[in-house]
Write a sequence for this structure.
């Protein structure tokens, strides 16, 4: 498996066809060459990923229940082995594959944008802090626990560091050597991230449900809610009584949302790398747009101000909700907290829906061309937006059915129904707005207008009196300047050059305001359920209608997708903001 040998039958066949043709042989990177997709290698790597994902899903889901003879350390052992294999492959890729001659003939400029890699690093830092807390927590009573529980967070920390470095420097690579090994390695990396994500979601969901019912639930109800890290067999022997132990325990559970988002971000970037293996990019048709992120340029600050108001208000609502619902047993305070939560979300979702509709209308009058080039990153963004929205759709429709079919109906039920309907509408309109923005060409008018205005600057603003004197009433063109050799300029062209940029800037400013408002609003709508504000567990309507077993299971399955949707929408809206 040398560096110069490409294990690709398709690429070998294409080179043979090119050698027998009458046309001169062209290198793979030329525009005339076609992309070579390895169907066999792709299928094998997909099958490998499917089987590993099913095995991990089986162990993770089984380890959450006490009556099933699958222990939490069995899950930790599998995840540790998978992460170690991925670490070895990443080192092989960085040291061997990427340094081979002609290994990376081209790079995908759309893959791994700076804001996505920056978000990955941010979540990686919090994931490392979570691993430190987890190591401290398990080390507090290491004498009565399996060693794998301490080894697992250590290996996970190493895995996060190695993978983050790998994605930072290699996210744009289009690899052309060791194709089958690279595809299988990337799929193994993707599956490992998804397995870690499933484990974190399961552990967090069981912990949340356990905390909600801990005060009033009986042993029969709590039996299946015991979290995977502390089963009943070791709960009596391994009590966390010290204050430092409680700090470590609560700390790593509060940091779980960041680790969950890190795994999903890494999975998305690895998938794009897998799609780019063996890909040839036509640089003549694959335009590279070097856009600069200017936050406070060409903006009225309306979107930023409104977004910050929503963000700060949402944090206040979250704090009050946590205090009144989780720390108080009075039903009146619980009703007040739910009412406050629903009113805030109704106002926020209604405003977001309106601005999304306004942005979509502005796009209808946008003169920019649609970007129809092949772009795996954009295709993945759209698929993730549409797929992740299904989780919140499912919760909303279940809530609507329960509220409409239940009696009696009170004010909280009416607010809950309005909240569910607006959640569906907001997801739909926001997806339309984001997809419209992602498929638009970046603005190209700036350079043209700027160069034209530079030529006309002295003519327009310095010699404006001379121009007005020399322009005849009939509207004929101005005489060309024999000294400078510039072209003749018609007065109507002069007027258009001054007015057109203003119209263009108005649309772009409006779209930027909308993007920034939606971005900040999605951040608070991600923070609230990720850090404990989950009215699905506190509202009795759905719980009484579907039962104590069905409704928590629906929420535990669907809510992580809704949380991921918000964070992915933030990344997509940031791209729409920069592209506007």
């Amino acid at each position: 498996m040398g560096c110069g040998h490409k294990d690709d039958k398709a690429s070998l066949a294409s080179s043979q066809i090119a050698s027998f043709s009458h046309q001169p042989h062209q290198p793979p990177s030329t525009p005339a060459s076609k992309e070579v997709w390895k169907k066999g290698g792709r299928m094998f790597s997909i099958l490998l990923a499917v089987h590993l994902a099913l095995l991990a899903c089986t162990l993770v889901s089984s380890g959450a229940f006490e009556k099933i003879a699958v222990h939490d350390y069995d899950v930790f052992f599998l995840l540790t082995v998978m992460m170690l294999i991925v670490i070895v492959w990443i080192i092989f890729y960085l040291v061997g594959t990427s340094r081979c001659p002609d290994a990376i003939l081209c790079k995908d400029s759309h893959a791994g944008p700076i804001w996505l890699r920056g978000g990955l690093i941010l979540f990686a830092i919090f994931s490392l802090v979570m691993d430190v807390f987890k190591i401290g927590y398990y080390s507090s009573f290491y004498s009565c626990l399996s060693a794998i529980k301490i080894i697992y967070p250590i290996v996970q920390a190493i895995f996060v560091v190695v993978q983050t470095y790998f994605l930072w420097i290699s996210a744009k690579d289009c690899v052309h050597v060791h194709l089958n090994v690279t595809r299988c390695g990337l799929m193994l990396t993707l599956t490992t991230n998804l397995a870690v994500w499933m484990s974190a979601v399961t552990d967090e969901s069981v912990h949340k449900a356990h905390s909600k019912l801990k005060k009033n639930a009986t042993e029969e109800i709590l039996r299946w809610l015991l979290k995977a890290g502390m089963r009943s067999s070791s709960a009596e022997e391994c009590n966390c009584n010290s204050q430092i132990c409680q700090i470590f325990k609560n700390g790593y559970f509060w940091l779980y949302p960041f680790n969950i988002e890190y795994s999903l971000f890494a999975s998305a970037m690895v998938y794009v790398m897998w799609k780019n293996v063996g890909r040839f990019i036509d640089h003549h048709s694959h335009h590279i747009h070097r856009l600069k992120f200017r936050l406070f340029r060409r903006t009225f600050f309306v979107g930023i101000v409104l977004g910050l108001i929503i963000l700060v208000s949402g944090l206040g609502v979250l704090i009050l909700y946590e205090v009144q619902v989780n720390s108080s047993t009075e039903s009146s305070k619980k009703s007040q907290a739910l009412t406050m939560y629903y009113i805030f979300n109704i106002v926020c979702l209604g405003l977001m829906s309106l601005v999304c509709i306004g942005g979509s209308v502005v796009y209808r009058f946008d003169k920019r061309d649609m970007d129809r080039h092949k772009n795996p990153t954009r295709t993945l963004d759209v698929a993730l937006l549409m797929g992740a929205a299904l989780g919140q759709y499912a919760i909303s429709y279940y809530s609507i059915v329960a509220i409409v079919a239940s009696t009696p109906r009170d004010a909280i039920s009416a607010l809950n129904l309005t909240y569910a309907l607006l959640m569906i509408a907001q997801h739909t309109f926001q997806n339309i707005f984001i997809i419209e923005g992602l498929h638009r060409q970046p603005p190209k008018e700036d350079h043209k207008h700027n160069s034209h205005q530079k030529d006309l600057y002295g003519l327009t603003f310095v010699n404006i009196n001379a121009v007005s004197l020399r322009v005849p009433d009939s509207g004929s063109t101005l005489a060309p300047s024999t000294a400078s050799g510039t072209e003749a300029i018609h007065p109507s062209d002069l007027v258009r050059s001054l007015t057109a940029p203003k119209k263009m800037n108005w649309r772009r400013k409006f779209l930027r305001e909308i993007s920034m408002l939606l971005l900040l609003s999605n951040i608070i709508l991600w923070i609230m359920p990720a850090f404990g504000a989950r009215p699905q567990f506190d509202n009795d309507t759905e719980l009484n209608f579907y039962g104590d077993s069905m409704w928590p299971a629906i929420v535990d399955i669907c809510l992580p997708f809704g949380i991921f949707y918000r964070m992915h929408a933030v990344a997509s809206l940031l791209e729409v903001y920069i592209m506007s």
Observations:
- The chain has a mean pLDDT of 76.
